[in-house]
Amino acid sequence: MFKKWLLAATLVAVLTASLVLAGCQSGSVPISTNQQTGISVNAEGKVPATPDIATVSLGVTAQAATVAEAQSLATSAMNQVMNALKTNGVAEKDIQTSYYNIQEVTKWDQLKQISEIAGYQVTNMVTAKIRELNKTGIIIDAVVNAGGDLTRVNNISFSVEDPTTYYDAARAKAVAAAKAKAESIAKLAGVKLGSLLYITESASYYPETVYYARSAADVAASTPISAGEVDITLNVQAVYAIK
């Protein structure tokens, strides 16, 4: 019984090997390859958007002989700044501490050839979201007047709170651009464009940042702030088959 089973298994193995060999010789057995097929393109969709939020980085920096004195000066000035923000319509939820630092201030003693502590500096910065853009300049002026010479305003950026509609428009542009680009490549290559095999997107949205600086001579002048427009950008990668 065992010999019959062994004989049968051997015949099957031989027959299978013969069929595979015959298929290879006739070219009917597919050979695996890593060669990529299709047309791959990248495209961008960009739409202009009108900002509805201004985010301002501002705060105070105070320096004194001791930490306690510097901290007291900074706290007093920052309280005035916070009050100016809230009085001019900036909600408490839109004010967030972004940086707080206490550090030594040193000076070089030329006679002793050593660095000595000259005092301490306290910096307290917040980011404030201004939702009434037409009041941005007024609010900055109020903050500068409240904090006096200790006030620091680093920069202003403009953004869109809900960019969904703009992303939809950018996406439509990106997909249309990808298809047009693929059709152009296919035509130049002398082939016909097939169906879409793969598509993915990546969004990139860059709010415009305006760096702010103000001299003592400008204190009496009103600060002009213009939000302008920001670009909402979305990128897609698409792969099409070749007919």
What's the SSE blueprint?
Elements: H1 2-26, E1 39-49, E2 53-64, H2 67-87, E3 95-109, E4 114-130, H3 136-147, E5 151-159, H4 164-189, E6 193-205, E7 208-211, E8 230-242
Antiparallel strand pairs: 1-8, 2-4, 2-5, 3-4, 5-7, 6-8
Helix pairs in contact: 2-3
Features:
single chain; 243 residues; alpha+beta; Translation Initiation Factor IF3; Alpha-Beta Plaits; five-stranded antiparallel sheet; three-stranded antiparallel sheet; 4 helices; 8 strands
Would you mind describing this structure in some detail?
- With 243 residues, the chain is of the alpha+beta class.
- Among the domains are: 60 residues, Translation Initiation Factor IF3; 107 residues, Alpha-Beta Plaits, CATH 3.30.70.2970.
- It is 35% helix and 39% strand.
- It contains four helices and eight strands, in the order αββαββαβαβββ.
- The strands form two sheets. A five-stranded antiparallel sheet has the order 3-4-2-5-7, with helices on one face.
- A hairpin with a 4-residue loop joins strand 3 and strand 4.
Q: Count up the helices.
A: 4
Strand residues, percent: 35-45%
DSSP E strands, number: 8
Shape: elongated
Short description:
The protein has 243 residues and is an alpha+beta fold. 35% of the residues lie in helices and 39% in strands. It has helices spanning 2-26, 67-87, 136-147, 164-189, and strands at 39-49, 53-64, 95-109, 114-130, 151-159, 193-205, 208-211, 230-242.
